[in-house]
């Protein structure tokens, strides 16, 4: 949700900025550096230096700086200073945006959830206090765009609050606020993460028929998570009367999806392209070269410890590695610190077959990786056959990867 919120803030800021282009770029460059500052006192000093050096009078830009300073204090558990800087933010929309960022960050880190609930409630209440107030709109901001932003903002604020209420065991209230978040949303476009939360809350409140509809729709679209698959199976046994009937029913859904993926991916297979050769070292310093792996199907997974979608995809990738022992899976950590990769792998016991890209991300660059996670599938002759980027759900990842592996195995 931080991405959505920052998009809204920066869009407002860009709309009302009246400085020269180079000044704007300088501002964003220094603001990004401030946001990375871990010491809140230094972050505060940086904020005042930016305001003074760039002669800032624009409240939107100063709001952004104060919001990042507030976040720096939150990360060292200084709740009083976090709230103090939030209150200094001029625009109420920016206040709610940074309150929501704070609540979401605590939720993601699974820390101080009582305080996360408090500031998530403040976010919702503050949003409700100004969403229909024309005075809250920046003077230079078009009314139509402002109304659209207000509509967009409702979703992350309510969804974050619902997720935190659920984490604190308040599932009845959580369902109420999640329904509020989804009131104007296209249910067919529901993300797997939110769909899982929705089905969990429906089941917790005894609404099994509604949960079944959501779970079935996501399964048929190939976008369910592992947890949703478990939920669907349990409900299936209740509805269909036995494990066997449920297995047959779910298998039919999966087979249909597999056929669709096979047909689609066969058309997208890369031809006449040799995979870039590379040599990487594992966490113990042992080298592996692609040129020496001819005769094997190789799956390369470019990832990083700081990449949340990469981490989310790891359990599904581990299941694939176990399911296809004849395929060699190489997990290459790119643009990451060796110490962070070592610590992560030691703590989580995966990914197995972890290797380190060079600091300049040479291997990722040779594969023209534009984002992570990226998976590359290489055939027995060293030809690059598939390359895919991103992660949305376990089910979608598993279906796509299994289809690509099957196609390459049959070559």
UniProtKB/TrEMBL annotation:
Q: Which Pfam families match?
A: Redoxin (PF08534)
According to UniProt, the name of this protein is TlpA family protein disulfide reductase
**Domain (Thioredoxin): residue spans on this chain:** 269-406
Lineage, please?
Bacteria, Pseudomonadati, Bacteroidota, Chitinophagia, Chitinophagales
Listed SUPFAM superfamilies? Thioredoxin-like
**Matching InterPro entries:** Redoxin (IPR013740), Thioredoxin-like_sf (IPR036249), Thioredoxin_domain (IPR013766), Thioredoxin_ResA/DsbE_sf (IPR050553)
